[in-house]
Amino acid sequence: MPAVAKEAELAIVATDPAEVEGAAEISDFRAIIAHSPFVPLPDNLSLEGLLADYSLALPAPADCDAALCIGAEAMPADLTMRPGDDIFVGLSFAQQAMPDALPEQSVSLVVVIDRSGSMKGWKLEEVTASLARVLGGLRDGDRVGMVSFGASAKVELPESPVAEVREQIADILDALEAGEETDMEAGLRLGLDLARAHGAERVVLFTDDLPNIYGERPAGFMALAEGAAADGIGLSLVGVDHRYDNATALQLSALNGGRFYEMTPHFDVAGLFEQAWPQLLGAGPESASVILKPGAGRRISAVLGVPEELVERHEDGSVALDLGPAFVAQRGNGVYVTLAPDGQIGGSVGTLLETRLSVTEAGETREHSAEVTLGSTSGGLAAAQQLVEEYLVLQASLKAWHAQGDPERAAELAAFLNARMAASDLAFLDRERAMVASLAARMAMALGSPPASDLLGRWMVESERGLSGTSQGDIVEFTADRGFIIYRQSGEESGTATRQTYQQGDGKLLIDNTDLVFAYELKSRGRRLDLKAVVGDERLKLRKAD
Predict the structure, then answer these.
(1) Which domains does the chain have, with CATH numbers?
(2) Phi, psi (5° rounding) for residue 294?
(3) Do you know which InterPro entries this protein is assigned to (predicted)?
(4) Among residues of the chain, what percentage have pLDDT more than 70?
């Protein structure tokens, strides 16, 4: 078994907002492995994205008579990169009944609809059919506005009393057509501007795209959502044929008034959406949080899938998770923790973990508790642990390959994971096995194929175009350990050097940690090297310097 580093006292295994602009979609990670000759970066893969690709249903909480309930099940932990953990726990939630009526007070909202090309077909058809159904049920005194967006955003209907625009709403929905690029933030921004101008209390956004939840730009999705919450505007995000990862769902649910719903193909999409409509308009609980307290002789060693900012550690060893009511009500599962002995031999033999869900609705707080012990478990929990194992080992492998300069260690970890997954009896994870096998083979092949000797050595920059990190006269060096080093020869940075790494394959070069992929060509009997970006206008012409 590969050697691993000692774990932290409490690890938060979740997308790091300092590194990733949103949880990476596993489809993108798979595409890199399937369609390029390169090894993906660690940031191309997130635990949330991997887990969201599967419906890993855990058993619903038992003996529950509260509006929202919590349950959990546990199994022995078997995580290569976390050998000190001995218990793997999955939390499950259940909502006993969806709100079946609109809020008593009048509703004032703005609907924002994605009409980009990816929405063409059943997606836009189901959105418009569902909206026609629920907007038709609004009362005369309610108010509604409509915005649509593709490459740009436009106001389809100024915020107006429903009694005055019922027929107009139907005409607008019938006329919507999909077929442009997507600028979600432009659509959300216009919808929020319309809401603020007319005092609307909620914006409902329909899209099949993944929001950039960690964008730091002033107009980034979460910045817009947080600004709306500060102004008293609730935001409801409806994922059309899209299961949101935990990072997105939790970030939105933690906002004041944040809601989300996943609209997927079904024989009665509009009918199911109609059931969720009151909650999307703000009905139901205002807040929800979970307290996890380890049993005697144990400690909580890791929280998986919950962003750091939503986790609070307590001196008594308990952990509080601010999950938000929408996440608890809609997701059902997707939060996992691991336990480890706290120094006493064997840890506890009875209750492993105490869980308590606190829900506030209409100013009243109610609680539901559950105790976790070892017993029979569902296939969903076993599959979740295998996906967590895949993620942790892949991250360690990719970091060894890209950041630590240790391709041998990276290939060893990938080969180990490949063998372990091949021995698994979980048939529905065949796609994971195929992906890991391809990555392991690619790493092994790259180790056996050192960089082309014609590239190695130092080159002088004769000319460059579109590149800010180098200029004419600088020296570029390709090393045998895949180092890409630029020695600055002029300007304020003269005398300095920057080191990156590169990957090579199929006549292309990838500069790691950038989106620069160059097609390269050796000329003049190997004395000149021409690099031309595969996508973009960047170009670099080099002449042998030694």
Answers:
(1) 108-280 (3.40.50.410), 457-544 (2.40.128.270)
(2) -70, 150
(3) CLCR, VWF_A, vWFA_dom_sf
(4) 92
